[in-house]
Design a protein that fits this description.
By secondary structure, the chain is an all-alpha fold. It has helices at residues 8-31, 35-38, 46-57, 62-82, 87-108, 115-125, 133-158, 166-171, 174-182, 189-214, 216-227, 244-255, 265-288, 296-305, 307-322, 335-356, 364-374. Helix 1 packs across helix 4 (62-82), helix 12 (244-255) runs antiparallel to helix 13 and helix 14 (296-305) packs across helix 16. The chain is globular, with a radius of gyration of 20 Å.
Length: 376
């Protein structure tokens, strides 16, 4: 396989990971991580649905996307060099494009955006463009170890606090929801405007720290494996198939620390999420090359090729369903029906992406990003 050639396994894994990402995000769409409402037992199977999400999916699918981001980063570099293009210029424009897209997503659609972090992480990964695989792996492990301590603390600052905006999402107008993401109410208009400007300016700067810790470890791992030339059709992932059952079992066991009230449980849960991520990647490789996957893997690949468009579509559809300016079902559906909605929406996206690609090569957001990145 030529360097820079698209790897269908990577597209398929990306498409599969969007299911887990949607299921995790569904709790945010429904409750903004208001834990009191999330565990409201008046809904049928509420606790079961929350724990299924928290143990099987939470913290284990965004790292898959990060891994794929790093792998694709290497393939982008290889592709631009083969074509004789200006690699640095293309990578920089891609990073800025993701930052702008992420900020627009955060401000105008949904506050759970992750694209901003991938955008700022692009510039972090540029430092390793010429590094050896060993250097990438050392940095990946070191950052991963730091993130075990730092990421749970940072998450606690965001979720489960008194600043959640559940009333705004349930009752506020679209303008109220938009402004709540970037500013706070003040009697003086100038103060409100200043806070909004500072927030918008600080978002990418803070994203450098958060993005490097959340996206960086698995992105560097993906870069290392991509640089080795693994996971191609010739390689068939043979080096990564063994031990996936144990990785998943160990990851799930560690994730069960969520039932333990102890000061160390968040660290153990995060470690379990990382172990589970590796197990899921291994398991998908085994599945991808099995007979059972022959019909499905192409559907996954189609969804993965349109991942940007599908990710943003999920946000638009779900916020319209749950927020007050749409159907207004915020906090009223329950976690089990949220899981069902996630599976139905994902299935629809699988089919729509499949038929879409029969006529067009790229999704609308991918097309727009391509125009910006390559200036053509």
């Amino acid at each position: 396989m030529l360097k820079g050639t698209r790897v269908e396994l990577i597209d398929s894994l990306r498409g599969f990971s969007l299911l887990g990402i949607l299921i995790v995000n569904m709790l945010n769409f429904q409750y903004d991580y208001d834990f009191e409402k999330m565990f409201d037992t008046s809904f049928w199977g509420q606790e079961f649905g929350v724990y299924v999400t928290e143990i099987l999916f939470q913290g284990s699918f965004y790292p898959i996307f990060s891994f794929l981001f790093g792998y694709s980063f290497v393939k982008l570099i290889e592709s631009t060099k083969v074509k004789g293009l200006n690699t640095n210029a293309i990578v920089i424009r891609r990073g800025f494009g993701l930052i702008v897209l992420g900020m627009l997503h955060y401000i105008f659609i949904w506050n759970g955006d992750i694209l901003l972090y991938y955008g700022v992480c692009t510039f972090f990964l540029m430092m390793f463009m010429s590094s050896r695989v060993k250097t990438m792996l050392i940095w990946a492990g070191s950052l991963g170890a730091v993130s075990l301590v730092v990421v749970p603390y940072m998450m606690n600052l965001v979720y489960g606090n008194d600043m959640l905006l559940t009333d705004v999402y349930a009752k506020g107008a679209y303008g109220d929801i938009l402004l709540s993401r970037i500013t706070v109410e003040d009697d003086m208009l100038i103060v409100t405007i200043i806070i909004a400007i500072v927030t918008i300016v600080m978002m990418p700067l803070l994203g450098i720290i958060f993005g490097s810790l959340t996206v960086g470890p698995f992105a560097l791992l993906g870069m290392a494996i991509g640089k080795r030339g693994h996971l191609t059709e010739e390689d068939r992932g043979m080096a990564y198939r063994k031990g996936w059952v144990w990785m998943i079992l160990i990851g799930l066991a560690l994730k069960c620390a969520t039932f333990i009230d102890a000061p160390w449980n968040e660290l153990v849960i995060t470690l379990g999420a990382y172990v589970l991520t590796i197990g899921y990647i291994q398991a998908f490789i085994v599945f991808y090359y099995s007979k059972a996957a022959q019909g499905l893997k192409h559907l996954f690949a189609g969804l993965g090729r349109l991942s940007l468009s599908n990710y943003l579509a999920q946000s638009i559809i779900c916020t319209t369903i749950f927020y007050s300016y749409g159907l207004g079902l915020f906090g009223q559906m329950g976690s089990m029906f949220g899981l069902l909605l996630a599976v139905c929406l994902y299935t629809a996206q699988l089919l729509i992406s499949h038929f879409y690609l029969k006529k067009w090569r790229r999704g609308p957001v991918e097309w727009l990003m391509g125009k910006w990145v390559y200036w053509r």
